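Batch manifest line 118
LIGAND: copper (II) ion
JOB: complex structure
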Amino acid sequence: MKSNIRIFALLYVILVTLFITNATAYPLHYETTSFKVSGNCVMCKKRIESALKGNPAIKSVDWNVNTKIVKVEYNPHSISLEKIHQLIADAGHDTDKVKASQSVYIKLPDCCQYERKK
Ligand SMILES: [Cu+2]
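JOB STATUS: finished
ARTIFACT:
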């Protein structure tokens, strides 16, 4: 009986150690990516940033109206680059990797309908 308790105690210590090691092996770390997103104005800025804001995998997002470059801080364990591009395209804005669908694009206000490459 006594050796059983020792074995359980040992197992418990091993499990707790494994759990702690595993939790610290992947500290929450963010990566930064920058890429071009088509758009015109501050309304576009709001729309592009809203496409990612509130997503727990996104730490920060900033689209520059003049340079058309978006800077995104994201958790690479939780979201892929492809998904980030897709979310912005879903909001109606072409990225340098993913094109927004025409049906979403034509619903943008006139001032936001940026020039598209044919
Ligand atoms: Cu706009």
